[in-house]
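[09:14] KT: can someone run the structure on this one? pasting the chain below
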Amino acid sequence: MSAFVHIPGHFGEWLQGRLGPEGAVALVTLSAPDLGLDARHRPGRGLRIHGAGLSPARGRAFLERIGAGLFGQVVVRPVVAPGLGTGVSTAALLALARLAGVGAPEEMLAKACIAAEGASDPLMFAAPDRLLWASRQGCSLGLLPPLPRYEILGGFEGPPVRTEPRDTAFPDISDLVARWQAGPTLADLAALASESAARSSRLRGPAVESAPALAARLGALGWMRAHTGPARGLIFAPGRVPTGAEALLRAAGWRGILRLRGGTR
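[09:31] RB: done, structure tokens below
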């Protein structure tokens, strides 16, 4: 009998960088439950995995680390292609765990993802955007305040970029994290996300970003990005995305236009 799971994804990060010049790489993810991937399992012999770039060898090694067995064929269908900044690689591993009947403890799953890939998004947690996440260590560095309600108009600009676990060339964001921990308003959140994105682009590229000009033209509060990958988004108060904004993003070369809503206060 076949089984089906959906693993929520994310859409880049509100913040990402180092906690001090030599500190850990840390991030605050932007949850995107409708992204991520779907996975279907049909029992059988051995383990065959199709989709998301996940090899059977890596899948078996991950399952061994969490003490689970899974046999048969697994077909993984990401909502968007890998490498765009939506957490497909982490979600694919978590799909194997769920199909094998393992959903907790979350900390164990995070460590197993790190062992398999060297980096991880916090998708195994129910509220990943409430965590200050050490993405190369697979652990939370602290609980963050609830997010204000927001709306993101986003898309993808540029080619896919895979995360390189040994890449730690990120800007220092310790000052931004301190302000985030104080419980930002939506305007504060947008300003902090914009600054994190701008620091990353100055250090890592691309040299030219269209998002800041689009944010100004459309009256957005700010912009955000996948700090590895082409996901970009404009930050608005709920219901304040102007008519025709999607067409303007497409004209600027953005693809896969989408809207995300979240926050609880």
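[09:33] KT: thanks! The chain has a mean pLDDT of 96.
[09:34] RB: yep, looked fine to me
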